[in-house]
Amino acid sequence: MSAVWHPFTQHGLGEPIPQVTHAEGAILHTVDGRRIVDAISSWWVTTHGHCHPRIVAAMREQAERLDQIIFAGWTHQPAEDLAQGLRAIMPEALTRVFFSDSGSTSVEVALKMALGYWTARGEPRHRIVVLEHSYHGDTIGAMSVGARGVYNQAYAPLLFDVATVPFPSPGHEQATLDALERACADGAAAFIVEPLVLGAGGMLFYPAHVLAQMRAICAAAGVLFIADEVMTGWGRTGTLLACEQAGVVPDILCLSKGLTGGAVPLAVTMAIEPIFEAHWSTDRARMFFHSSSYTANPLACAAANANLAIWRDEPVLERVAGLAARQAAGLSTLATLPGVTGARAFGTIIALELGGNAAYLSELGPRLLAFFRDRDLLLRPLGNTVYVMPPYSITPSDLDRVHAAIGEACAVLAG
What we know:
Layout: E1 20-24, E2 27-30, E3 35-38, H1 41-44, H2 53-63, H3 77-89, E4 94-100, H4 103-120, E5 128-131, H5 140-144, E6 163-165, H6 173-185, E7 190-193, E8 197-198, E9 204-205, H7 208-221, E10 224-228, E11 252-255, E12 267-272, H8 273-279, H9 298-313, H10 316-334, E13 340-346, E14 349-354, H11 364-374, E15 377-378, E16 385-388, H12 396-413
Helix pairs in contact: 2-9, 3-9, 4-8, 6-7, 10-12, 11-12
């Protein structure tokens, strides 16, 4: 019996847990010889494909030179190169790069930056404003600014209060904007949002003009705007950042997942200069108190630098556009099938519901998971919400397999 306790896994159900031995592109190979199509980028992280040669080579070379070094008061070239590389492709106003380890910790850093900014200014602003159905991670601060429910109900005593504005569902966008304006008028510290796509909340999409209006409301009220692009960044919505589609530049930007091409954990929180300056002082008590042992790990930074090189040297956005077109074409067929509702696409992502309204603990969820697993596909529905978010390197034939299996599931399971 394995001693491993897996995340988001109810071991009491006795579901099989395949063991993967190696991977390449969009394909996973298991110990029993199966060829699995990774249709969700291994939890949304793998952009260019598994074991990309340039990323693997960069980590191998770095491992022979420097594996790890404390980053408090020390530095190394991979981190310096990565910070400059990010500044070159991210919005010009985001001048500072703070390293951490995961999407959740990048959000924790963002929240602490925001509160530290107001504290340093001598203004008592503590309330964080969030969007309904949002998800920002599983650490305490990240859970606090996410939707309350099955993900975190056991930990409610640990979570801090937030102001929640309704999701801008079609026809109800103004209610969102009005609620945000009221929350900002009450002297909020920051508004945190997943731009254009809410991931774990059910792959919920909203239009760019709403994001732009939300940003304008925050700017008018002097409320810091935090964009959590952990999932939406690195091309998932069709552009490098989702914020680009709304002409939005956040005050604080969270990046992870595709930052290293999905190869190893790394995250950054980028901030505008006034936030850094608020912490700058000759008083040691005003420093930014956050770190981890592996902040800016050199191996991870080397992987991220290789990812930036791929974005510079290769036609990544052309691949993104091609994948988006194939996804949309597949969705057009799936949308016509009985039992399918809410068929939608955004960039390289498609999603739909089977069997009615979305519900994370839908009894259909485990059946769908098993159905796809038995067909050698890595698809992990969010309850009865089925979504496809593959690496950009997936072949047309493998993507067709994924779409066909979803169609088969509609016929077999959704009736």
